[in-house]
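Comment thread on ticket #2218

A.B. wrote:
> Attaching the input chain for the structure job we discussed in standup.
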Amino acid sequence: MLSHWRYIVLCLLLFLHPALTTHIHDPLSILAMAITAEEALKHPLLPSNLAYLRSQSDYRIDTGPHGEQMQKLGFWTWGLLIYRCDYSDDDLWERYMAKLRDSLTTAHKEEMMEHTLHYLEWTVIEDEALDGASKALVLEKFTEWRDGWSSEQDGIYADSQIKRWIPRFRYAIHVGKDSLDSLRVFEAASVRYELPYVLMAVVHAPWPLLPAIQAITDDEEEEEEDGIDETWMYAPLIYLPDMYPEMVQSQSRYWSARFRPPPGLAGM
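C.D. wrote:
> Ran it. Output below, let me know if you need it in another format.
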């Protein structure tokens, strides 16, 4: 909201110069007159701030599907939880995380979505009790975290169905020995134009069906096909910048469309 004194200045300006209103057709452009770049960058995807930033930029400013979702839902955080599940090499872990961060940052800047990066929250779970943890255990821990949200601790969205539409509450990343070993192989590769993928394991925690949908599907039982574990899959780390926006767009259809049984890779 505009501060009190800026609101008064704006009203006086429009009163003293009524002709201004004949040239301004977008209400957001009126608000932009009282916004500074410093203030806009504190919350860049707020519609009035974004309008100001676009008016001051010589380049296209995009938000991406995840930016649009934050604007629609009012939940101003994105990014998947990351569980560290191997503690044998701290330096290797740091190099892995640096590569992950760089892939997201570089891709968003190249796609003119730098302002969306403002809302990326790196939630990394480091607990040596998780050393060697399986994907199943991470799925359990992640589901407990998600279902343990309360409005008292986490705000009004904690008990809202809105969370169902946000990938942050459906998927998580497991980084174990297999993922870190893939970075070792990548770094040791001698043929630079045929580099192997650095991998991450994506864990899927689908939401329970809503009662109305459950009533329709009561007679349908989901079973693992040929004993395949469909709760996680491998994905190239470089795929993460495209993965989150696609999760937003595809919603619950994402997993069925992209799932490939390990050692296959997501959607490949």
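A.B. wrote:
> Thanks. Noting for the ticket: The chain is about 45% helix and 10% strand.
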